[in-house]
Write a structure and sequence with these properties.
The structure is a homodimer.
Chain A (H helix, E strand, L loop, with lengths): L13 H6 L5 E3 L1 H6 L3 H6 L3 H5 L5 E3 L3 H6 L4 E3 L4 E4 L6 E4 L1 H11 L3 E3 L11 H22 L11 E6 L5 H12 L5 E4 L8 H14 L6 E3 L5 H9 L4 E2 L3 H7 L2 E4 L2 E4 L19 H5 L2 H9 L3 H27 L3 H11 L6
Parallel strand pairs in A: 1-2, 2-6, 6-7, 7-8, 8-9, 9-10
Antiparallel strand pairs in A: 3-4, 4-5, 11-12
Chain lengths: ~350, ~350
């Protein structure tokens, strides 16, 4: 899922999102709650109609902002008090309110409110946040059943399992969360300070405890290599800002690894970003021109690198789906890892 | 002509420029000379190929930057010395060099180097710059005949008449410039401090001295009302940053006048910018959403307002062409002026 924090995948039009191969996108409850406000989104007919996007939308719950905006947050059992990053206004987000807002937004998949924590954390803190995430998950699901979207369309609800970096706690919380009867399950609070080895061990034990026949969603990840490794562990769904945010910083993803378009080596290069890519950037423009546009601060550079990167991510996911169906996933993964070079985030 | 200073109409893709109704766009010699460099543009096959734009392109000569960058400029008879606004590097632009660069860029229409001046200016200064513009025009045209574009395509050359705010000098310079045998003629150095009444008087006397059967180009203007007034005086061609620059500041042009999308009155308005407009912004998005995107600093706001504004300008020009052909220009102009309200720049 490309990320459309404020109700727009930064730089892309709905047509371009579609053409990139995107099947579903993510929007952020916390940000939309503050601006333009969920009441306005409902009044405008919901996110789909407001954004002009007729594909599925998943909304997060605001739980991740407990971690990312931790300086502006106070946790209580009833919910979380935020001071708005926009104007300092006080907001109180309960599990119930998180579901009401997501119903206003009219997303196809809502997420339960969870309590994400930064690592390292002690055992008591990890247990406390994980148990709270489970209690909030129950409260979220109960309220979700009573909410209606602007169009009356049914909204699915995924529950989030936490557990910090303790494999036993992760396994336990995944198993208990799986009993909530949600429409899908997510692993929250990963890739927030632990080693990559730990991320995959925690993903593995969590996935083993989650139902195989329901979606498993690894939140907030990752690099192309991360996606391959996570799919190998049974993950179905991701969201990540890398393809869009890094595009604006001049990074283009390619099968050979990331490319920094600012580098002087591209200054006179007439080739496209990736000769094998069929996105509008690669069909129309040279690296030399895209580098010029990026250095000149032209919006078209951000647009084209974003379109290319989202296309790259969606093509990677599509190729993995096809490889799985053909029983050739391991072969694909080895080939991809063998070609892809460099630190990619 | 929408303005693509650095080789990109800010915010728009080549497809969108085309769909907006644009027949020809402008790019800036001075800016492209500094970055990415005209040698690189030639190496990449010229501006059309570099930008992915197969319609006509007009390049200015750098003469306007004598005025807009006057703190960084020293005029000599041979040419103009610039200190680059990017890195302070010294550049010397002669009439000959201006044409060589434009040949490298491979534009369809090149402009002669002129000496534009800010108003007010005394009679001697006005005469001096106007005579120099004529001499530089002759030198430009002579060199242009010896230059080749990257593709070998023929390049037309328009000459620029100056004359500050003295109608007699303007009439004289237009008549003398018309004898240069250029492919078209431009009025330079207007709307640079004089009253609107003076602009139109100077345009009128200049146009009377220029051939009716060749294009007359009013450089650097203007608002929608300006375009109507100038067409009434026989102007054929314009370039202006208003539709693109003002879009990025939140201004949308409509038949009722300019609209500031930031205004609170639009916050909950489900209507498009202009219900009669068929641009992608008006077909897909509400004022409320575009206002939200603009306030949130989302690129899509800049893109959509730019697309709308360029479409508005091109539709206005197309409607005027059709009205002229139907012998109904005055009726159209009266109706347009009667409906359009407000200061529009």
């Amino acid at each position: 899922m490309p990320v459309g924090t404020a109700g727009s995948v930064k730089g892309l039009s709905p047509d371009e999102i579609r053409v990139s191969g995107t099947q579903i996108l993510l929007a952020n409850t916390y940000h939309l709650m503050l601006r333009p406000g969920s009441d306005l989104v409902r009044e405008l007919g919901g996110l789909h109609r407001m954004m002009g996007w007729d594909g599925p939308i998943l909304t997060d719950s605001g739980g991740y902002q407990i971690l990312s905006l931790r300086e502006r947050v106070r946790i209580e059992e009833d919910g979380v008090a935020f001071r708005s990053h926009l104007d300092g206004a006080r907001e109180f987000l309960t599990p119930e309110r998180a579901m009401e807002i997501q119903a206003d937004l009219g997303s196809d998949i809502a997420m339960t409110l969870d309590h994400a924590v930064l690592l390292p954390i002690d055992a008591a803190g990890a247990r406390d946040a994980a148990e709270r995430s489970l209690r909030w998950g129950e409260r979220s699901l109960r309220r979700a059943r009573a909410c209606a979207t602007p169009t009356g369309a049914r909204q699915l609800c995924f529950a989030i399992a936490q557990g910090a970096d303790d494999p036993a706690l992760r396994a336990e919380m995944a198993a208990r969360t799986a009993k909530l009867g949600a429409d899908g399950y997510a692993l929250g609070g990963l890739s927030v300070g632990e080693s990559k080895e730990a991320t995959w061990e925690l993903t593995r034990v969590s996935n083993e405890a989650l139902p195989e026949d329901q979606p498993r969603y690894l939140m907030g990840m990752g690099t192309p290599l991360d996606l391959v490794d996570a799919v190998a562990l049974g993950v179905d769904l991701f969201d990540c800002v890398l393809p869009t945010r890094n595009a604006r910083n001049g990074m283009a993803f390619t099968p050979d690894g990331p490319m920094n378009i600012r580098n002087a080596v591209h200054a006179r290069d007439p080739r496209p970003l990736d000769p094998a890519c069929a996105c509008a950037a690669c069909l129309q423009f040279s690296r030399a021109y895209l580098r010029h546009l990026h250095i000149a601060g032209e919006m078209l550079a951000h647009r084209m690198l974003t379109l290319h990167n989202v296309t790259f991510y969606q093509t990677l996911m599509k190729t993995m789906r096809e490889a799985i169906e053909a029983g050739a996933f391991e072969r694909f993964a080895d080939a991809f890892r063998g070609r892809y070079r460099g630190a990619d985030a």
